[in-house]
Amino acid sequence: MKFDKRIIHRDLGYFYVGLIISFAISGMMMNHRNQWHPEKYVLEKSAFQISPIEESMVTDSLAQAILKKHGIQDKFRRQSIKKGELRISCEKTDVDIDLKTGAAEVTSFINTPVISQLMRLHKNTSNWWIYYGDIFALSLITIALTGTTLLAKSKNSFRRRGWKLALAGLIFPLLVLFLLS
């Protein structure tokens, strides 16, 4: 059987088209997860008041006691403090408490159908998915490299024109990395 980079390029592209689109969509959503939460949507918001809390007094036990006292029976995940606000994160509930005033807001949410599953692809760390992801990454490299040589005898070939675009495409993310470091 003759090695043909066009066939490899085409067949890998066909095989991975669904995963490429899924990763592209979920990747864009993950890029903006600080501005909005595409993975979940709010069902209900409510408020309650507690006594102010010293930041040094906050522990997982205290966070769990607050949940229990206010009838929140969701599975506790973690607590964190940012800019004087305690966030208690549960599976389907977030509780935000202003430590100085004791003002608390409860947000109940559910996962967004389809979108939350797509985003889970990026977060999955099971062994078999990691190996599948490695194979996918190698396949993308193969698709990229075979694509550079498909128009070898054209005026728009990689050798004549494509290398300039590839270099620009490489320099841009490197500049961003160095400027953000």
Major sheet: arrangement of strands: 1-5-4-3-2
Query: What structural class is derived from the secondary structure elements?
Result: alpha+beta
Number of strands: 5
The whole-angstrom Rg is 24 Å
Count of individual helical segments: 5
**Estimated helix fraction:** 40-55%
Q: How would you name the oligomeric state of the polypeptide chains in this document?
A: single chain
SSE sequence, one letter per element = HEHEEEEHHH
Head-to-tail CA distance between termini: 48 Å
Mean pLDDT: 85
Strand content: 15-25%
Task: Indicate how many domains the architecture comprises.
Answer: 2
Main β sheet profile: 5 strands, antiparallel
Question: Shape, please?
Answer: elongated
What report would you give on this structure?
This protein has about 180 residues and is α+β, with helices and mostly antiparallel strands. It folds into 2 domains: about 5-35 and about 115-180, no CATH class; about 40-110, no CATH class. Helices cover about 50% and strands about 20% of the residues. It is built from 5 helices and 5 strands, in the order αβαββββααα. The chain has a 5-stranded antiparallel sheet, with helices on one face.
